[in-house]
Amino acid sequence: MARIAFIGLGNMGGGMAANLAKAGHDVRAFDLSADALAAAKAAGCLPVDSAVAAMDGVEAVVTMLPAGTHVERVYADAVFAAAPPSAILIDCSTIDVATARRVAEAAQAKGMMAVDAPVSGGIAAAKAGTLTFMVGGPQEAFERAEPFLSAMGQAVIHAGGPGAGQAAKICNNMLLGATMIATCEAFVLAEKLGLEAQTFYDIASVSSGQSWSMTKYCPVPGVGPETPADHDYQGGFAAALMLKDLKLAMQAAQEADATTPMGERAAELYAAFVGEDQPPVDFSGIIRTLR
Ligand code: NAD
């Protein structure tokens, strides 16, 4: 079993670090929040008082931080300053592709191996150890990271070179944002045309309009499997995080000169929704604004 530094013990990182500890690893955990550190201790991790202290003698460093600026800072101040050069560096945060590539280049310049490994699956999947990891980096780095990621998830997929994990993540979530809005629109129109939501679901879920947003995450309460719609749009994947991912996708599209009109519209609609709906709400709650 390995000694691992884990930085960022929030909604996602807390459950992930706990699963590494449960798998028998010696997890040196750090977060700026005292509550998060206490929860990590209760879950079997060893809390330490700085990111630098967490790096002592580790074989792997896992980061799960809010955004690219946090990742770049923690890498500059702690990881590159104090981690053993042989450690595999695994960033699981969702960040912009350009920052992920810059971090990978900086690691390579220091002779260190690094991967970007963002996740699909929310807080419940982080706790249950059923996340999907999409991994960007050289084959050898992927092979080094894979056993650690497997202890926190059920699927670990090599997406390509540095930044490819982040690229896969934001393209997937851009598609999800657009299909969720389209699914909500279809339910609202069906309702206004006099169709029962259940009847429309029964037809569309076995027809060509079918999607994950329809059959696994239906935005209408009481229809399909249990979803946040059945709990007044609480829990699930926060609309604010969908907006974050759509903004990252739009930034990447601009940098790559890609045309993404549906992604742009989805970003505009989620920006308006998050602005007006201050208490955290699931992203399928956008159906309210279409009614
Ligand atoms: P969170 O805000 O709950 O957790 C982030 C943690 O990082 C916080 O506890 C914060 O104190 C800590 N932190 C910030 N700067 C730090 C620093 N310099 N040193 C140490 N700790 C620091 O966020 P989250 O929901 O856990 O999300 C983490 C990442 O996972 C984000 O990039 C998010 O986009 C991504 N993600 C989240 C979900 C979700 O459903 N929550 C799903 C998929 C991906």
UniProtKB/TrEMBL annotation:
<dbReference type="InterPro" id="IPR015815">
    <property type="entry name" value="HIBADH-related"/>
</dbReference>
<dbReference type="InterPro" id="IPR029154">
    <property type="entry name" value="HIBADH-like_NADP-bd"/>
</dbReference>
<feature type="domain" description="3-hydroxyisobutyrate dehydrogenase-like NAD-binding">
    <location>
        <begin position="163"/>
        <end position="289"/>
    </location>
</feature>
<dbReference type="InterPro" id="IPR011548">
    <property type="entry name" value="HIBADH"/>
</dbReference>
<dbReference type="GO" id="GO:0008442">
    <property type="term" value="F:3-hydroxyisobutyrate dehydrogenase activity"/>
</dbReference>
<protein>
    <recommendedName>
        <fullName>3-hydroxyisobutyrate dehydrogenase</fullName>
        <ecNumber>1.1.1.31</ecNumber>
    </recommendedName>
</protein>
<dbReference type="InterPro" id="IPR008927">
    <property type="entry name" value="6-PGluconate_DH-like_C_sf"/>
</dbReference>
<keyword id="KW-0560">Oxidoreductase</keyword>
<dbReference type="Pfam" id="PF14833">
    <property type="entry name" value="NAD_binding_11"/>
</dbReference>
<dbReference type="InterPro" id="IPR036291">
    <property type="entry name" value="NAD(P)-bd_dom_sf"/>
</dbReference>
<keyword id="KW-0101">Branched-chain amino acid catabolism</keyword>
<dbReference type="GO" id="GO:0006574">
    <property type="term" value="P:L-valine catabolic process"/>
</dbReference>
<dbReference type="GO" id="GO:0051287">
    <property type="term" value="F:NAD binding"/>
</dbReference>
<comment type="pathway">
    <text>Amino-acid degradation; L-valine degradation.</text>
</comment>
<dbReference type="GO" id="GO:0050661">
    <property type="term" value="F:NADP binding"/>
</dbReference>
<feature type="active site">
    <location>
        <position position="169"/>
    </location>
</feature>
<comment type="similarity">
    <text>Belongs to the HIBADH-related family.</text>
</comment>
<dbReference type="Pfam" id="PF03446">
    <property type="entry name" value="NAD_binding_2"/>
</dbReference>
<dbReference type="InterPro" id="IPR002204">
    <property type="entry name" value="3-OH-isobutyrate_DH-rel_CS"/>
</dbReference>
<keyword id="KW-0520">NAD</keyword>
<feature type="domain" description="6-phosphogluconate dehydrogenase NADP-binding">
    <location>
        <begin position="3"/>
        <end position="160"/>
    </location>
</feature>
<dbReference type="InterPro" id="IPR006115">
    <property type="entry name" value="6PGDH_NADP-bd"/>
</dbReference>
<dbReference type="InterPro" id="IPR013328">
    <property type="entry name" value="6PGD_dom2"/>
</dbReference>
